[in-house]
Amino acid sequence: MQKIDSTSCRSVLWWMVFTGIAVNYMLRVNLNIVIVSIVKPPEKPAIESECRDSWINSTLVHRNSTKPEKYYEFTWNEYQQGLAVGAYYWIHWLSEIPGGILARKYGTKIVFGMGNLLAALLGLLLPIAMSFNLSSLIIIRALQGLVAGVSYPSTHEMCARWIPQNERSKFVSAYMGGGIGIALTYPMSGYIIDYFGWKGVFYVTSFLGVVWFIFWHYLVFDTPAQHPRISKDEKTYIIENIGNSISQENHENNSTVPWIKILTSMPVWISILSNWSCVWGYYTLMAQAPAYFKFIHGWNIEEAGLLSGLPHLLTMLFSWLFAILSDWLLKTEKMTLTNVRKLATIACTGGPGLMILGLSFSGCEPTLAFFFMMTGIAFAGAVTSGPLSNLVDLSPNYASVLLGICGLIVDAAGFLSPILVGLLTFENQSVGQWRIIFIISAVNMAIGCIIYGFFGSAVRQPWNDYHKAKSNKNDDIDSSDE
Q: How many other C-beta atoms can be found within 10 angstroms of the C-beta atom of residue 249?
């Protein structure tokens, strides 16, 4: 086995995917923190009636917790805010499957790169849209979600072409770059708002997206064979270890995708269900944590930003450590591939599910709420070694298509979660309502954990070689005609 050093092409690829997804999520969540700071809160915040005696209320809420009336430029209610945040996901799902198909045809370099670049350019229009009306904001956010939707599923195409199976968990941990993007965006946005105004948040995150695209264009290539600077040893190692799991001919000829076999595959749907379970809980905390800690525990915008972003640093750390464990278990043959994926799925759904359940009953105890939130989001990092890697295991040839289908389904979580929160907290920002929100998330995660634990599989599916079987069938027909 070849050791990966910091200058290997796989290492550079990891960093570029990591930072690319970080930028993608920065552009996705920047509105979440902005909207908390510029929208007028309820006349009587929940913290005054339910958590007035809490530690956070006595130490933090009195520092910059109230701002002059003129600071609040918008008066959207909770439901309208939910529409603005959720609009990103309204048509985001439409580009998920096309993203996987386009990556097979044109390569991840173009698809991922252009998806992020266009989302960044649209981000520059958000301040203008918000100055007009809510409808304009919703339209731009929806378009931003649409173009960014092609990026994520395209990554699996590159993973299948570059990364051997026993390194896959570690590489897919780069997908947790989104967590780092969130962790940086929340506190960064808080300070930008205080010193430069809320519009600066959109300009800075879009600028970072453009800079990333420049590096991506010059450093990343779709296959080892195309890379002009890869060493001979690394190229040989990759080709030998990937073997025949992925067919170059299949991609070059744009062979037919076996849609019926994929859509009727039980292992695929079980993997998608486990992804859904993890993503629902993750999105609930990712998108709604600032509002929860502001209205329930009384934290001002900077503290809400920092403490809502900090757990995502632990998500990345946990993802990385669990990936090292998973790859070690495979290399030493301590566990089968399927059992490694089950272990990771239990960690990323069962662990957070218990933590979110604890959060739902933490009431006005900010220390407990902070602990449960931080621990729950951290455990979710194991998704990279579980359900996400599992899709490549099932079919390297069609991995980007599988991730596109998965993204289409689980994006509904990003769409429904903010709307559900808006409906449940509309004119009722209370501990009881947030408890319902968190219990719904915990139940979602428990279902995915149990089903994958019993029925999940990482065995490569027969239809991964669908193009070969079809080709052989055609050859047999041609032979019989002679």
A: 10
**Rounded Cα–Cα distance for residues 209 and 145 (Å):** 15
User: What burial class does residue 427 get, using C-beta atoms within 10 Å of its C-beta: 0-12 exposed, 13-18 middle, 19+ buried?
Assistant: exposed
Q: Are 217 and 113 in contact (CB under 8 A)?
A: yes
Show me where the domains of the chain are located. 11-43+76-227+238-244+257-476
Tell me which residue of 35, 39, 61, 34 sits closest to 296, measured CA to CA: 61
CATH superfamily of 11-43+76-227+238-244+257-476: MFS general substrate transporter like domains (1.20.1250.20)
Q: Which residues of 380-407 are buried (b: 16+ CB within 10 A; e: fewer)?
A: bbbbbbbbbbbbbbbbbbbbbbbbbbbb
Instruction: List 74's β-bridge partners, or say none.
Output: 39
Tokens of 335: 């566990």
In tens, the pLDDT along 68-119 reads 454 567 778 778 888 888 888 788 888 989 998 999 889 999 999 999 999 9
Q: What is the pTM of this model?
A: 0.79
Burial class (CB in 10 A: 0-12, 13-18, 19+), 10: buried
Place of tokens 């009722």: 428
Host H or E run for residue 10 = helix 9-38
Sign of CA dihedral 404, 422, 139, 32: negative
